[in-house]
Amino acid sequence: MNRAFSRKKDKTWMHTPEALSKHYIPYNAKFLGSTEVEQPKGTEVVRDAVRKLKFARHIKKSEGQKIPKVELQISIYGVKILEPKTKEVQHNCQLHRISFCADDKTDKRIFTFICKDSESNKHLCYVFDSEKCAEEITLTIGQAFNLAYRKFLESGGKDVETRKQIAGLQKRIQDLETENVELKNKVQDLENQLRITQVSTSPAGSLSPQSPSTDIFDMVPFSPTSHPPPVPTPNGTQPPPVPGRAAEIRGVQNGTNS
Asked: Residue 163: which of 258, 96, 251, 245 has the closest Cα?
C-alpha cells in the first residue's frame, strides 16, 4: 500500500498486534460516499475524489439530507463499513485490495482510501469525515498493513491465499443471506396479494336461507299460509272445517247481494 501519511521511524504503533490480528479496532465516522477513480494511487487522485464527493454532499445537505454515520472495523483482514445500530455490513474492503490510504493535510477531518472492487474490478475511492480521529484511523490501517505483510513473510504467502478463500466464502454467504431476505419479502408480498384477491372475489352480503319460524308451544313449523291442526271435540268427533279467508269473503258478498 502506498501510504500518503508520514510516520517517524521512532514512533510506535498505536495498537497491539493481537488487537488487529485476532480482533478489530472500531471507529465511528461520517461516510461521504465512494466514487470511481482512474488510478489505484496518488494524492491528486484522492484529492479530486474528495472534492467531487464534498460537492455532492453539499448539494444533498442543502436538500435536507444528513451525512450518514458508519462504524469502521479495521483488522489485518480489511476494513469493514457497517451501519452503527444494526451492524449491517455495507462494504467489506479486503486489505489486499486496498492500494492507497491517506488523510487530508488541508482538512484534518477527512481521510480516504482506494480499494479495488471485487466484482467490477474498478478502483473506488472511499471518503470519510472524522472530527478527531482521521489521522489515527489512517495510521491504524497502516499498522494493519504492516502486520499483514509480516504475517505474509512468515507464512510464505500461504496465509494470504487462505484469507482470499475465506473472504470469498464470506462474500458468498453475505450474497446468499441478501438473496434469502429478498425471497422472503417476495413470498410475503404474494401472500398479501392472494389474501386481497380472496377478499375481493368473495360475494358480499350473502345470506344463508332461513328455516321457517317455529311456534314455541307445540314446536310445529309455522308460516303465514299454514293452518293449525284440527283439535278433537270431547265426544271424539271432528269439528267442522274452518272456512278459509277466501270462503268468508265470498259468504259476506253473497249475503250482501241477497
From this structure: 96
pLDDT tens digits, one per residue of 84-102: 999 999 999 999 999 999 9
Taking a C-beta distance cutoff of 8 angstroms, is the pair 28, 77 a contact?
no
Q: How far apart are CA 59 and CA 130, in angstroms?
A: 20
Judge contact between 130 and 137, C-beta under 8 A: yes
Tens digits of residue pLDDT in 195-210: 888 887 766 555 555 5
Specify whether the CB–CB gap between 57 and 32 falls below 8 A: yes
The C-alpha atoms of residue 41 and residue 102 are separated, in whole angstroms, by 10
Task: Give dist(CA 133, CA 161) in Å, integer.
Answer: 32
| Cell triple for 185 | 419479502
Rounded distance between C-alpha atoms, residue 192 and residue 212, angstroms = 41
Residue type, position 170, single letter: Q
Alpha-carbon distance of 88 to 90, in angstroms, equals 6
Locate 122 and state its grid cell: 474498478
What secondary structure letter does DSSP report for 151? H
